[in-house]
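Researcher: Structure prediction, please.
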Amino acid sequence: MCNRYESPTVRETQVQWSISNAADWPGGGVYPRALGYFIRAGQSAPEGVVGRWGLIPPFATTANIPYSTNNARSEEVAQKPSYRDAWRRGQRCIIPANSFDEPCWETGKNVWWRFNRADGLAWGLAGLWHTWVDKRTGEVIDSYTMLTVNADEHPIMGRMHKPDPKLPPNQQDKRSVIAIAEADVERWLYEHPKGVADLLNPPPVASIAGHALG
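Model: Predicted structure follows.
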């Protein structure tokens, strides 16, 4: 699960993804429940939006929900109440990230690793978004979650996160972000949910430039 990433500026995002309708965004580090920047399907072209990282479910009575929704297992979004409406409606998004961080426990301690794209461009990470309205005040809040996929067999992402000593290596359910290539952005944002299943994969090994921090 990813709990921190570095967001590019709105200008950098506009250049890489050719977005014309974009909210103002300075870039920088993003953490759960903080504001972040994401790209969603607009009426005629993709649009940039500033919203909270941590999807507020449609049934929530308050924006301050007690559980974490900044990551969502892609295998569960079609059934899980927090995400199934957004998935069914095709409310998928791209989360621009210059880098994302993951914990590695191979030394027996938590060592943070940072992952950039090998070609120097920003990642376009897969997500879901939802617009929540407070029925008491009328406040409107856009929010989003980052989708993850099983990475037990991935040579790099399978090394991240604390292992469960009770489970064999191929049953750890190590999680990875999902990177959407620029060529697949239009499909990801606009196609029917059944048409994007093949995009739910960890980043290709050749695309990753990772290193331990500190």
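Model: The first helix runs from residue 10 to 17.
Researcher: Thanks, that helps.
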